[in-house]
Design goal:
Number of helices: 13
Order of helices and strands: EHEEHHEHHHEHEHEHEHEHEHHEEEE
Strand content: 15-25%
Strand order of the largest sheet: 5-4-6-7-1-8-14-13-9-10
Number of strands: 14
Radius of gyration: 20 Å
Distance between the termini: 6 Å
Length: 419
């Protein structure tokens, strides 16, 4: 039975542009939120976001190529290079046919399309780049990473809105399980902080308007939560079959135990009030991993800091775990990095792996006022020592997507889900 292990990791986030910086700041409860600098938001009612700081694409790729791709692709290439270096793996002509890429994004090059439209309106057709289409196409991220590295295995892109990054890992997992690749570069990326997209989210009422309290604005599960803080960034992993990783002497951080995908079939943005679609995804992920609810050591929640979403997720956890729900730590990475849309689930998987590695679970910051509907253990405000062997990572997306990934601490005699 093929086991799928994690041998390398990379991160570009609002709290750090490498895995170690990201994790140290997550443990410290740092917030990546602040005033928007990517565009002039002075006329906007909402003027805060969790931006990536001090990112220079030329540190990771040729300057000319960097200008021809979107920001989210730049993030993907940077995190891929980090992850490959971490895994001590190089793509070569000899191994390229067995190396794949599955990196997803919820919005892809939407912000690049917006910039091009503005140029068209201001300066006419000749101002539009001939590389626009290849920068914004849905498969651009995975394809450009593949081209940059010369991989010749499966290259897949799919979009499940804010669950895209989590689903990428499940897609890669199944490709390796089916024997279609020995190693897959997989994760999520997003860079959609731009005027039109931001304005639409604001008009939707999804964003927190606490401009003067930026670092406290994202407060999942708190009674006074009032929307998410927009984020951006990427997290990428090197996934391998256990056999391939061992044969090359790779260090193994953990393993993907599988997961599940369900739909609410209810509303394009709102969760189903009875949480039945979400709870079904959680149950299936646990069952697929060959475990029971009693084995789950922590939940890395989707937890966007919206009134309906956090309450529905809490209800789903209670439906699955019963009374034990009150003993399972539930943490919300978005309290620190904001909602990174298609990269959100991948970043939470990164936090889960680091938790298992270090025995410390990062906190849900800004939790001050308990909500009777949200009454679980949310690891409030301070990191906590927590030795866990199995974590669930939740990711839910517009359109009713529910994706749950089961991540396990690696052991020689462990079991990797169903064959």
């Amino acid at each position: 039975m093929t086991r799928v292990v994690i041998t390398g990791m990379g991160a570009i986030t609002p709290v750090g542009n490498d895995v170690n910086t990201f994790w140290e700041n997550m443990k410290a409860g740092e917030s990546g939120a602040g005033p928007i600098s990517i565009f002039d938001a002075s006329d906007y009612g909402i003027r805060i976001a969790c931006e990536v700081k001090d990112f220079n694409p030329a540190d990771w790729m040729d300057k000319r190529e960097a200008r021809r791709v979107s920001r989210c692709t730049q993030f993907a290439i940077a995190t891929t290079r980090q992850a490959l270096a971490d895994a001590n793996f190089e793509v070569t002509p000899d191994n390229s046919k067995r190396v794949g890429v599955v990196i997803n994004s919820g919005g892809g090059g939407l912000s690049t399309m917006e910039e091009a439209t503005q140029k068209l309106l201001e300066s006419g057709p000749r101002a539009v780049s001939p590389f626009l289409i290849t920068a914004i196409m849905l498969n651009a991220v995975s394809s450009m990473v593949s081209i940059e590295l010369g991989t010749m295995g499966p290259v897949v892109s799919s979009a499940l809105a804010c669950a895209s990054g989590s689903y990428a890992l499940l897609e890669a997992y199944h490709l390796i399980k089916r024997g279609e690749a020995d190693l897959i570069i997989s994760g999520g990326t997003e860079a959609a902080i731009s005027p039109v997209i931001f304005a639409s989210f604001a008009r939707m009422g999804a964003l927190s308007a606490d401009n003067d309290l930026a670092k406290n604005a994202s407060r999942p599960f708190d009674k006074d939560r009032n929307g998410f803080v927009f984020g951006e960034g990427a997290a990428v992993f090197i996934l391998e079959s256990e056999e391939h990783a061992k044969a090359r002497g790779a260090r193994i951080y953990g393993e993907i135990l599988g997961g599940s995908l369900t739909a609410d079939g209810h509303h394009v943005t709102a969760p189903k009030p009875d949480a039945s679609g979400t709870s079904e995804a959680i149950r299936r992920a646990i069952a697929y991993s060959g475990k029971s609810p009693d084995d789950v050591g922590a939940v890395f929640a989707h937890a966007t800091s919206t009134p309906l979403g956090d309450a529905a997720e809490t209800l789903a956890i209670k439906q699955v775990f019963g009374e034990r729900a009150y003993q399972v730590p539930v943490t919300a990475t978005k309290s620190q990095v904001g909602h990174m849309l298609g990269a959100a689930g991948a970043v939470s998987v990164l936090a889960a792996v680091k938790t298992m590695q270090d025995g410390i679970i990062c906190p849900t910051i800004n939790y001050q006022t308990p909500d009777p509907e949200c009454d679980l253990d949310y690891v409030p405000n301070e990191a906590r020592p927590e030795n866990i062997d199995l974590a669930l990572v939740h990711a839910f997306g517009f359109g009713g997507h529910n994706v749950v990934v089961a991540v396990g601490k690696y052991s020689e005699n462990g079991k990797n889900g169903k064959s």
